[in-house]
Amino acid sequence: MTRFERVAVIGVGLIGGSFALGLKAAGACGHVVGVGRGAANLRVALEKGIIDSIATEVTDADLVLVATPAAQYPQVLAAVAPRLKPTAIVTDAGSTKRDVVSAARAALGTRISRFVPAHPIAGAENSGAAAASAALFRGKRVVLTPLPENSAESLHAVESAWAACGARVSHMSPEEHDAVFAAVSHLPHLLAYALVHEFAGRADSAQLFGYAAGGFRDFTRIASSNPEMWRDICVANREPLLAELERYAAKLQTLRPLLERGDAVALEKLFAEARAARERWLNGEVE
């Protein structure tokens, strides 16, 4: 396990804070510096022992994690780049990767070999340092999207950091990553937000929400996620997300004639196939 004497976390929210706590719990780091725009959130992080100090720069950090909303990456990386020490390794926790890689290339230039893009597949509807947990990444996937320029040292260091947090590390290209997560993550969030917004705008919204129960709550749980973060994700990954939205709209259109003609046999067949596929996934039969 690689030990990092000084770690800087830019954006000490659920993900950044949990990363810091995970490293601390594993004994994989020494001092953790918190950097961010929210003074109150940083004070919470300090009080909870997530970070050891608050700073505005990352000059002495051995490892830097950028865990801010996606739209801030160009500005954050541009500000960080000239202040990094030569041996510093930088990674991120962004839910999209092509835009992050582009921002990193623009900011870091010839030092791009020290930047290893990452995406932890873990989260919750709550946000901020108060929601951070050392156990958040245990048993969860973290996808790295290594760059051709990455050195073996940089890649190993970032793999080691996420493994210390208990994560299962895998690799994809940035393009493959964005296509996959447009389908399995970004589309579900878009649908959940849209459904809640649709009901909220109806004249009988109070009645609808009054009678909504477990099914509606489970389906729309992720509509309680951070709106700023999901705004940035949807805009950054809009092309793959639009493609998935078209596919989903087409699937809904295949259901319409089944309902119109009351085709119970066809509906049950579709529902049974969907349930079986979900159960295979839940039982770990699909990796």
User: What is the mean predicted local confidence, pLDDT?
Assistant: 94
Q: How many structurally independent domains? A: 2
- Secondary-structure element series: EHEHEEHEHEEEHEHHHHHH
| Fold-level CATH name of the largest domain | Rossmann fold
Determine the strand fraction and express it as a percent band.
5-15%
**Principal-axes shape call:** elongated
What radius of gyration results from the CA coordinates? 21 Å
User: Mind describing the biggest β-sheet?
Assistant: 6 strands, parallel
| Name of the CATH homologous superfamily of the largest domain | NAD(P)-binding Rossmann-like Domain
Question: What would CATH call the architecture of the largest domain?
Answer: 3-Layer(aba) Sandwich
Total number of β-strand segments?
9
The assigned structural class equals alpha/beta
- Which regions are unreliable across 5 or more consecutive residues at pLDDT < 50? none
**What top-tier CATH class of the largest domain fits best?**
Alpha Beta
Portion of residues in helices?
40-55%
- N-C termini distance: 26 Å
Strand order of the largest sheet: 3-2-1-4-5-6
Write a compact overview of the structure shown.
The protein is α/β, with parallel strands linked by helices and 287 residues long. Helices cover 51% and strands 13% of the residues.
